[in-house]
Automatic annotation (TrEMBL):
This is ATPase. Signal peptide: none annotated. Residues 11-172 form the NadR/Ttd14 AAA domain. Pfam families: AAA_28.
Length: 186
């Protein structure tokens, strides 16, 4: 495999909640790639106070701030990890959520030293596989609106969006790797 420049080793999978991101990351991990679990799910699992502003259904701004802090730590740790590192969401998702909650866009001064690979993979809404659970309490319609914000937001921050087709997990993982390889040769 062609070696990737430093920031091009850090790859984001984002998109619709319940669209299959975590399953794709599990497949990539099974193939030997480093992966980083979604910050939001980790926050919700760890939070013990049901009234906490770190929970998205109590305060999207508070939750987004907590996700930014965790994503910054993830980003720094990933820089020390050799090879490709795949993120289930990450800093940009958290910043876009904060922007949605507060109408404050992220600053270039904050973003520029913390770039990921320019190609970001998004899983589209897929109602047939969407499942609400303890960490994902919102309905499919809200997940779809979130997806639309991401499709619009990533390009405004200088990223190219690659939407993954609705197909089996192994094929989706293959597509991610093929598109990354092609983007490296451009």
């Amino acid at each position: 495999m062609t070696p990737f420049p430093e920031r091009d080793r850090l790859v984001v999978l984002s998109g619709c909640s319940g669209g299959g991101k975590s399953s794709i990351l599990e497949e990539l991990a099974r193939r030997g790639y480093a992966t980083v679990e979604e910050p939001g799910r980790r926050i919700v699992k760890a939070e013990t106070d049901p009234a906490s502003i770190r929970l998205p259904w109590n305060s999207l701004a508070g939750f987004s701030q907590a996700a930014i802090e965790l994503a910054l730590d993830d980003y720094q740790r990933a820089l020390d990890t050799p090879g490709l590192v795949f993120f289930d969401r990450g800093l940009i998702d958290a910043l876009l959520a904060l922007q949605h909650a507060t109408a404050q866009p992220p600053s270039d001064d904050f973003l520029n030293p913390r770039r990921y690979h320019r190609l970001v993979f998004l899983t589209p809404p897929w109602e047939q596989i969407y499942v609400a659970d303890a960490e994902r309490r919102h309905a499919f319609a809200e997940a779809t609106r979130e997806y639309e914000r991401l499709v619009e937001g990533y390009p405004t921050l200088g990223y190219d969006v690659s939407i993954l087709p609705r197909t089996d997990i192994a094929t989706r993982a293959d597509i991610v790797l093929e598109r990354l390889a092609a983007a490296t040769q451009e």
